[in-house]
Amino acid sequence: MNVLVIGGAGYIGSHVARFFADRGLKVDVLDNLSTGTRENLFSDCGFFEEDILNYRAIVAIMQRGYDAVVHLAAAKAAGESMIRPEKYAIQNLTGTISILNAACEAKIPRLVFSSSAAIYGEPKYLPIDEAHPKDPANFYGFTKLEIERCLEWYDRLKGLKFAALRYFNAAGYDPEGRVHGLERNPANLVPVIMEVAVGLRPHLEVFGTDYSTPDGSGVRDYIHVTDLAEAHYAALMHLVEEPGSFAVNLGSERGLSVLEILDTARRITGRPIPAVMTGRRPGDPAKLVASSAAAKKLLGWEAKYSDAETIIATSWRAYAQHFAHERERP
Ligand code: UD1
Questions:
Q1: Which of 188, 201, 257, 289 is the best mutation target for the ligand 1 pocket, counting ligand atoms within 8 Å of the beta carbon and taking the most?
Q2: Nearest residue CA, atom 7 of ligand 1?
Q3: Which CATH architecture has domain 2-170+222-249?
Q4: Residue of the CA atom closest to atom 6 of ligand 1
């Protein structure tokens, strides 16, 4: 099976490309390398350096013949999306419309889309299942929800079948240590902690310790990126074998607090990881935890690597390798 992984040089995309190639799929990566890196490309996968907004170029690449597209190319910083909505409108909305039209023109029958728990907004109940009201609290989440709506119309009108995968908090690195690219300027908790551990940042800012959670810090559902990659594979196989499109949550169904992640990171890295308690980050809910019952039922998928230890140990391996020279300093 030939698959085009758009955004395949990025953090999640590279894990998806690796997982698919390991299972014998023929993978080509398409990426403009704006946030993805060449380090994340694999010799057994093809590569096209191209921008999703370059419609004719995308069509020409897709016309090489693919059984499916996996679309992970997007801007993803929820906070930034409230300050620069135009960037998210162009990259996420216009970019995806370009991909959908190109896939239809090139007669590619199916697409796996990176959606997000951000489509739900402030939780009305926990755990969050797929029927939860969809009321995004940030523009990033709005773009993901609007794309899901577009996907439904393209399915009805053009016959493009889709799987929308609503990630909770993606974290961790390939357990076999084969993904080396680190995210530049990360805003997410685990890479920020890793940057403190290697000395790139002086301290972690803990955004809020007065939430109504057991230790007062924010609770999230962290899902290991290899679990996500496996879910993409299962979703693609389901689209091939069964006729219908679908949308499912991908989470571990367990909540971990910022302070729990920090403690685990201090223990596993052996680094002090200084932390400063600061105020809440605007728009952050106290607690988000997924129900992944639908993905379990439909795809037979379950998280295997999403405990705090595995997430931190695999992340630390990637960061420690990258900054090996600093680690070896006395
Ligand atoms: C947000 C989105 C999520 C999206 C992800 C991608 C929402 C509700 N969630 O997740 O859908 O996929 O961004 O970027 O829009 N924290 C700190 N200090 C830091 C960084 C984070 O204390 O320096 C805390 C946050 O307050 C939060 C937790 O760590 O409690 C996780 O934050 P983060 O990694 O930024 O992800 P979300 O905001 O949960």
A1: 188
A2: 118
A3: 3-Layer(aba) Sandwich (3.40)
A4: 76
pLDDT tens digits along 161-200: 999 999 999 999 999 999 999 999 999 999 999 999 999 9
Q: What is the pTM of this model?
A: 0.96
Averaged pLDDT of the chain: 96
Sequence-distant (6+) residues with CB within 8 A of 113 are 71, 96, 147, 148, 151, 162, 163, 164, 165
Residue with tokens 């002090």: 272
Q: What is the topology classification, in CATH, of domain 189-220+254-299+307-328?
A: UDP-galactose 4-epimerase; domain 1 (3.90.25)
Q: Any residues with Cβ below 6 Å from ligand 1, and which?
A: 76-78, 116-118, 138, 141, 167, 169, 187-189, 192, 204-207, 218, 220, 258, 281, 284
Q: Would the pLDDT of 327 be above 60?
A: no
* The predicted structure's pLDDT at residue 330: 47
The residues of the chain that CATH labels 3.90.25.10 are 189-220+254-299+307-328
